[in-house]
Model the fold of this input.
Amino acid sequence: MKEIKRQFLTGERSLFAAKDLYIEDTTFGDGESPLKEARGITLENVMFKWKYPLWYCKDVKVNNSYWFEMARSGIWYTDNISMTNTVVEAPKNFRRASNIYLENVQFPNAAEMLWSCRNIKMKDVTAKGDYFGMNSENLEADNFVLVGNYAFDGAKNVTVRNSKMLSKDAFWNIENATVTNSVILGEYLGWNSKNLTFIDCTIESLQGLCYIDNLVMKNCKLINTTLAFEYCSDIDAEITGKIDSVLNPTSGKITADHIDELIIQKDKIDPSKTKIIIRGDK
Done:
């Protein structure tokens, strides 16, 4: 494998279509698409300062490296990439890429990150930015921390564990998602989704959990969550503690210690299709 060490590279497509290359302690300065169409690349302590560094690449390993803000739209159409111990300041990273592994990666400017990607595994990742993970498929996240709205809009086959999300409108239009042992804080959670499961979660969501087909909740807390479950069907919700208010669930079962306000409008839904169980009632 050829090695490049301690270089400062500039100019458009400076290492275009490189193959079987180890790059260490190197900076890519001005110049678009420095590693476009590369294959079999290992990057160790590498800095990217300009746009489109890894487009149409395959088999890339990144460790202890840095994307500056202008290295935006950095990883598009790339297959089989691992990234560890790295900071990516640039937005719009990972678009239509596949087979992605991220561990101990920070995305302080994660706007429009991981769009339309497939087969993603994330561990110990932090991100700040809106529309994270939109339209992506087969995504697993463990110990994920996100500050940003509209996360996972339109995604499919998502698993999130041991995570914290401050995210308005998270999990909209999603299909097949399971969230375990996590905290989600933000308005309008989960609308227009199908097969959405929360286990051992704490949720705070104004008018959250509405318009969902097949919603499962096990041992979850709903804090300051009002007007929940509107037009939800096939609900199986076991809530620890109280629910502030419930509005017009379509079908299923809701169990809680107490519901402060239960709003059922018989001209809009059939009340007989939803069973409400208050623990302790006889």
User: Anything to note?
Assistant: The first strand starts at residue 2 and ends at 5. The CA atoms of residues 44 and 221 lie 43 Å apart. The radius of gyration is 22 Å. DSSP finds no helices and 24 strands in the chain.
